[in-house]
Each structure stands twice: as structure tokens, then as C-alpha cells.
Write a structure and sequence with these properties.
mainly alpha
Length: 107
């Protein structure tokens, strides 16, 4: 397999968050975003490739889905626990995914 540096995995995690949110939000560019994620998955190693493929299929770790839902509902009481759960995911995975999720919401 391809050796993936930590910075590359963080970038892949952020991309996965962006892809998941774009697909979940049914953005007009969701098909292009999905295709780009599937292409990126072929250029990286595991577990990043699996995460990118799952995001393209609209699947993600439960904490990321809960964070997106809480943000979209503007559910104040749910935001803090969702944020804690997501940022606790891996060493940097959750924080990187949060970056991608928020970028998709803002774009």
C-alpha cells in the first residue's frame, strides 16, 4: 500500500467531512464532490481511502453525523456534546472532519 503521512491523513479527514456534508446537504455539486472523493481514495492509503469512499456514499462516523445534524438544527444543547464526541475521534480525525463539515456548510 501507499504510505500516508500524518498531514495527508488530516487532509483526507477534512475532505471526508466536506464530502459527507456536501452529499448530506444535497449540494448542487455533490456528484462532482463525490467523484473527486472516489478519485482521491485511489491516491491514498488506508484508513483514509475507506473514509473517503464512505463519505462519498453518505456514510460517516456517528459523531460527525451528529455534529452536522446539531449544526443544521442550531440545537444549542446538542452542540457541546456533539463537538466533544467528534473532537475525541482519533488524534486529529474529528477536528479535521469538523473543518470539512463547516466548510461545506459555509460554501
Amino acid at each position: 500500500g501507499v504510505a500516508v503521512r500524518r498531514a495527508d491523513r488530516d487532509q483526507d479527514d477534512a475532505i471526508a467531512g466536506f464530502v459527507y456534508a456536501s452529499v448530506a446537504l444535497q449540494r448542487s455539486n455533490a456528484d462532482a464532490v463525490r467523484a473527486a472523493a472516489l478519485s482521491a481514495a485511489t491516491a491514498t492509503g488506508e484508513p483514509s481511502a475507506s473514509l473517503l469512499r464512505a463519505a462519498a456514499d453518505g456514510e460517516v462516523f456517528a459523531p460527525a453525523a451528529q455534529m452536522l445534524a446539531a449544526l443544521l438544527r442550531a440545537d444549542g444543547p446538542a452542540l457541546a456534546p456533539a463537538l466533544r464526541n467528534l473532537t475525541a475521534l482519533g488524534r486529529t480525525t474529528g477536528r479535521a472532519m469538523l473543518t470539512g463539515i463547516t466548510r461545506a456548510i459555509l460554501s
